Amino acid sequence: MSMYRINFNDFFTSAFSVDCILFGYSEGEIKALLIKRAMQPFENLWAIPGDLIYPDEDLEQAAERVLFELTGLNNIKMHQSQTFGKPNRHPQGRVITISYFALLRIEDFEVKASSWAGDVQWVSLKNMPDLAFDHNHILASTYEMLKLKLQNEPICFDLLPERFTLNEFQQLYEFAFEQAFDKANFRKKIKYIPLIAHDEKQQNVKHRPAKLFSFNREQYLLSLENNSYTFKM
Amino acid sequence: MSMYRINFNDFFTSAFSVDCILFGYSEGEIKALLIKRAMQPFENLWAIPGDLIYPDEDLEQAAERVLFELTGLNNIKMHQSQTFGKPNRHPQGRVITISYFALLRIEDFEVKASSWAGDVQWVSLKNMPDLAFDHNHILASTYEMLKLKLQNEPICFDLLPERFTLNEFQQLYEFAFEQAFDKANFRKKIKYIPLIAHDEKQQNVKHRPAKLFSFNREQYLLSLENNSYTFKM
DNA sequence: GCAAAAGTGTTTGGATTACACCCATGC
DNA sequence: GCATGGGTGTAATCCAAACACTTTTGC
């Protein structure tokens, strides 16, 4: 994290940081973007990207900055998760960290290894190694919050490609809730979610190609206004 | 808040605090315990009780300390809500505040006006005045989180008296979700919540007295373990 | 034709809803 | 007896689960 570019003692006895968990979805798995720490402490361990918050910077703005440095992406909605502040969570001083998460379409950009990371990688939440600091704990609680929101807000469409098959959609929920759903019943459940059915079909599959759909966000917002439908999974 | 007992400039350029929202339930309304500020800024305005976090203190521990100073109560579960950190939210410096909430039985204790408050009062969430700082915003988001948890965890029993009538139970949800429920249907919905039915009845009512119930927490925890029931409202 | 996954229809049982009715108490 | 809320039963409806079946593509 960039705090080590600055003389640590110059900062003060306690500091705030943001940790910015980027969730993505590919190959049927929800993944988080992790960085390999290039310096002490926890050198060479994988960690959640994060940085100190500047004195006159809003929390969300700091999280967006971390996201931008890693991905070049802008205008992504940040969701606040939780705040972690055990006095000894950081070996070199008191650092209270506010964790945020964002949902990305993995295919839509290229990750840039930043100055403060030796390597960057998407890691499946099914297969998480030991992370630096208390980052396993932070990631686990944030994933719980993601799962809660997946049930109550149409944020799954921030993870899915802009055009997706209904099966990809179903598999996202199957991964998150660790259970298989019946295909016919799943389609009945999502019947009222406003989707746009395209004429376009899946390519290069060796079976009947599936129809592609997109989320009709405009219509969803309208239905929110007149209370005709609220997302619920 | 106690930060003003300390010379302000000695503290820092930025600081952390906890705000500790105490929710209670009486007379059919969910209320928050507010304090009347005895000093600048926002003197004489109502505010959420809060305090700075000591350098080697855990966040939750700080919130428990604020609760204890106000109520003398201990061993109350604190729920972390959200963190607020707009650079200008505090007129005298950068203060990032982590908000917690706790659920109390209003009848079980006496509020002590503490050194940093001129007055203390339970205020209904239906009838909230303008508060100090960004406390209206903090309270509103925290109330949203409370309502979310009321749907997924049996925390309503932390607000209700130890022995309650089914109607008090129903009215709590009616207040929170701002809608009336059918009595017979409500009772069918809660059929599987493990309750202890007492022989004791309501006293001093001028109609048929209602039976009193308590939450059977032991049995609920057992049913969680063997996955036979999970709370859902 | 066969394998593989897309896509749809039917049946069933349990939950939700609306609504009606009886019961116990104070006055 | 009457007002007031406590407490319960029933029928209609909706919804979710289980499961079977048809369709379309590549090879």
- What is the CATH topology classification name of the largest domain in chain A? Nucleoside Triphosphate Pyrophosphohydrolase
Oligomer: homodimer
Q: How is the biggest beta sheet of chain A arranged? A: 7 strands, mixed
What is the average per-residue confidence, as pLDDT of chain A, rounded to a whole number? 91
Report helical residue fraction of chain A.
25-40%
Q: Report, as a whole number of angstroms, the end-to-end distance of chain A.
A: 37 Å
Structural class estimated from helices and strands of chain A: alpha+beta
Tell me the domain tally of chain A. Answer: 2
Q: What low-confidence regions of chain A span 5 or more consecutive residues with pLDDT below 50?
A: 1-12
**Total number of β-strand segments of chain A?**
9
CATH class designation of the largest domain in chain A = Alpha Beta
CATH architecture of the largest domain in chain A: Alpha-Beta Complex
Could you give the order of the helices and strands of chain A?
Answer: HEEEEHEEEHHHHEEH
Kindly report the greatest chain-chain contact and the residue count on each side: A-B, 21 and 21 residues
Question: Mind explaining what this structure looks like?
Answer:
The structure is a homodimer of 233-residue chains. By secondary structure, chain A is α+β, with helices and mostly antiparallel strands. In chain A, 29% of the residues lie in helices and 27% in strands. Chain A has two domains: 139 residues, Nucleoside Triphosphate Pyrophosphohydrolase; 72 residues, Orthogonal Bundle (Arc Repressor Mutant, subunit A), CATH 1.10.10.10. In chain A, the strands form two sheets. In chain A, strands 1, 2, 3, 4, 5, 6 and 7 form a seven-stranded mixed β-sheet that branches. A two-stranded antiparallel ribbon of chain A has the order 8-9. The longest helix of chain A has 18 residues. The N terminus of chain A is likely disordered. At the A-B interface, strand 5 and strand 6 of A face strand 5 and strand 6 of B. Chain A binds a DNA duplex (27 and 27 nucleotides) through helix 6.
